[in-house]
């Protein structure tokens, strides 16, 4: 696999049982690149190790006054120089390719898992942890994959050099052959403590990243309630904990580096001391002494890769553990798609609450608990309840369908949809049936002023569809972002569309037009809207009140306002005292129709004015 061939057609099925197992699986899938890097690494390190032999031969040729051998040695040194240059260049290319392709494989796996789980992912894993895994952890895993081949080449080179020294000069070669393994293994007692400190540092850094992500995501709310400084203080404390953990980890790694410098120096002193005595006794030549000395000196270079692989593994192991934890998540009940890929049709029914959304009709759901409404909306989208109960579409459990078919059948837009950066054309370029054009979806969602705002903000965009949208649509107001997200959902034209509070940030006049547009565009298609807005409820074919986890009343908006106090309390924001006073004024068991509708209309007008002021202030 080369970089230009990315992304992978199929990243494979990872072994996510543990971090080390995931690293081994990743290494097995990188064998081709690892062997290529190993070959170039052997060329490079062998050429580096060959220089001391050339230096020794050159010194001995000068001592023996042999010009022929000196010239031959010069040629060998030039050949080693070419090998070093070519080997280093190609080793770097192959190792970096391994790094990038391994990181890309992990990112593809994470992207596939995110797409598979949808909004259920952030309910089971903190959003900040997902961000940390897909950024910093991916780099650490790629670093280990890249360092592995260099370490293997360095280890083989050290073994070959030790064997060569024993054959070339046994008296000194035996000392080197015994001393080098001691150098390589000397840091092993320090590695467990260094690994624990690295794990602790990664844990603290991940916590700080999660805290930062959550703070940024809720910054507007924090500012509104005056909690910005509180969360900033928490992040400062978390940041200082990361700093202290990093310093403690760095101290241990500096100790390991010191050992890697001290022990080779002691070995070099021992070799020189013993070699001088051997040369004085005439048992070895000066050239052989220079060769052994130069070899020991250059062996510190490949030995450095022992420290690197230890550090890379220590940092990548917790990263791989976090990645494996995310990749091991599955849908609550995943049958693997036991039915065919054919998308069913018919009524949408939730056995848990008893909610029924008839096919081809607009059903509005009123739920006094926003959290319960969000859970119900997710269950309608194919995420089963804690008991594993699945929603039925045309009598077919959604969990029995392949994931692609289930998502083609039902689309859920949550109450806080995300807009990705890019052009408006790219935003609306989503999988769809082709039955709804982008222009029709934008018109139904009342996005005319949004297009004008995007065009004014993009001076080089003549076509509004080419206008750029900033990250998460931060340059737009809450109502504008909400309408663009609604248009994106309408373009997909699913068999069943579930909208959770799609107009909560929109003024009443625009909301009324959106209600008309959505009803007309989705005519003959099943649509479920979670809302407490009288304007949307009045346009619904069927209104369902869900109270305390079950269906409490079914009807149309104006009927439920008159006969269902619980419904009226949610829609009109009526308090218990107001309800009691109203009941006393109208008489027992009666409710004045005209007065009730007037209160609804008055609520709509006041809500609309407040929403208009909020949107004007937010846009400014």
UniProtKB/TrEMBL annotation:
Protein name (record):
ATP-binding cassette domain-containing protein
Composition bias, Basic and acidic residues: 596-611
Check the record and name the Pfam families matching this protein.
ABC_membrane, ABC_tran
Membrane topology category: Multi-pass membrane protein
Native organism is Streptomyces fagopyri
Tell me where it mainly resides. Answer: membrane
GO molecular function, one example?
Answer: ATP binding
Keywords for this entry?
ATP-binding, Membrane, Nucleotide-binding, Transmembrane, Transmembrane helix
Q: Which GO terms describe its cellular component?
A: plasma membrane
User: Which stretches make up the ABC transporter domain?
Assistant: 324-573
- Where is this protein localized, as stated in its record? Cell membrane
SUPFAM superfamilies xrefs: ABC transporter transmembrane region, P-loop containing nucleoside triphosphate hydrolases
At the top level, the lineage of the source is Bacteria
User: What region holds the ABC transmembrane type-1 domain?
Assistant: 37-306
For region Disordered, the annotated ranges are 574-620
Source taxonomy lineage?
Bacteria, Bacillati, Actinomycetota, Actinomycetes, Kitasatosporales
Q: Where are the transmembrane segments?
A: 37-63, 69-87, 147-168, 174-192, 253-276
Q: Which InterPro entries match?
A: ABC1_TM_dom, ABC1_TM_sf, ABC_transporter-like_ATP-bd, ABC_transporter-like_CS, P-loop_NTPase, Type_1_exporter
């Amino acid at each position: 696999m080369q970089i230009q061939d990315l992304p992978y057609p199929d990243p494979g099925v990872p072994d996510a049982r543990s971090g080390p197992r995931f690293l081994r699986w990743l290494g097995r899938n990188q064998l081709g690149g690892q062997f290529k890097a190993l070959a170039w690494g052997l060329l490079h390190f062998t050429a580096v190790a060959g220089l001391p032999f050339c230096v020794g031969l050159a010194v001995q040729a000068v001592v023996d006054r042999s010009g022929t051998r000196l010239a031959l040695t010069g040629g060998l040194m030039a050949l080693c120089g070419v090998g070093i240059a070519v080997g280093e260049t190609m080793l770097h290319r192959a190792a970096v390719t391994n790094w990038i392709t391994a990181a890309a494989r992990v990112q593809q796996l994470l992207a596939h898992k995110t797409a598979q789980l949808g909004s259920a992912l952030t309910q089971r894993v903190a959003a900040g942890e997902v961000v940390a895994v897909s950024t910093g952890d991916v780099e650490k895993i790629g670093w280990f994959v890249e360092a592995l081949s260099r370490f293997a080449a360095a280890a083989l080179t050290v073994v070959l050099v030790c064997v060569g020294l024993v054959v070339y000069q046994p008296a000194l070669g035996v000392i080197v052959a015994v001393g080098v393994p001691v150098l390589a293994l000397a840091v092993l007692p320090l590695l467990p403590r260094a690994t624990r400190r690295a794990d602790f540092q990664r844990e603290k850094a991940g916590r700080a990243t999660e805290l930062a992500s959550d703070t940024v995501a809720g910054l507007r709310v924090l500012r509104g309630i005056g909690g910005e400084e509180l969360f900033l203080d928490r992040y400062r404390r978390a940041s200082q904990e990361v700093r202290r953990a990093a310093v403690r980890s760095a101290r241990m790694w500096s100790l390991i580096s010191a050992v890697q410098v001290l022990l080779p120096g002691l070995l070099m002193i021992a070799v020189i001391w013993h070699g001088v005595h051997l040369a004085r006794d005439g048992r070895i030549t000066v050239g052989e002494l220079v060769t052994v000395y130069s070899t020991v000196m250059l062996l510190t270079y490949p030995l450095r890769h022992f420290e690197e692989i230890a550090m890379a593994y220590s940092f990548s192991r917790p990263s791989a553990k976090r990645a494996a934890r995310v990749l091991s998540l599955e849908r609550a009940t995943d049958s693997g798609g036991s039915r065919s890929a054919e998308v069913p049709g018919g009524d949408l029914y939730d056995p848990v609450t008893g909610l029924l959304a008839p096919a081809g009709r607009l059903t509005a759901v009123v739920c006094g608990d926003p959290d319960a409404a969000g859970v119900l909306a997710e269950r309608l989208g194919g995420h089963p309840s804690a008991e594993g109960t699945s929603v039925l579409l045309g009598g077919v459990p959604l969990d029995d369908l392949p994931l692609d078919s289930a998502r083609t059948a039902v689309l859920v837009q949550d109450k806080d949809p995300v807009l990705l950066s890019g052009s408006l054309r790219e935003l609306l370029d989503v999988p769809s049936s082709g039955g709804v054009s982008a222009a029709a979806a934008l018109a139904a969602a009342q996005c005319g002023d949004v297009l004008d705002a995007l065009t004014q903000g993009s001076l080089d965009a003549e076509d509004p569809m080419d206008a750029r949208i900033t990250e998460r649509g931060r340059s737009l107001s809450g109502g504008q972002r909400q309408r663009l997200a609604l248009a994106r959902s309408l373009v997909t034209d699913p068999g069943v569309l579930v909208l959770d509070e799609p107009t909560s940030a929109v003024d009443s006049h625009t909301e009324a037009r959106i209600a008309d547009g959505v009803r007309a565009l989705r005519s003959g298609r099943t649509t479920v809207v979670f809302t407490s807005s009288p304007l949307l409820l009045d346009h619904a074919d069927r209104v369902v009140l869900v109270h305390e986890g079950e269906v409490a009343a079914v009807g149309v908006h104006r009927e439920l306002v008159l006969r269902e106090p619980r419904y009226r309390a949610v829609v009109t924001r009526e308090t218990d005292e107001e309800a009691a006073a109203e009941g006393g004024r109208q008489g027992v068991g009666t409710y004045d129709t005209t007065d009730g509708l007037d209160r609804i209309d008055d609520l709509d007008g006041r809500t609309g004015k407040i929403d208009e002021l909020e949107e004007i202030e937010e846009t400014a």
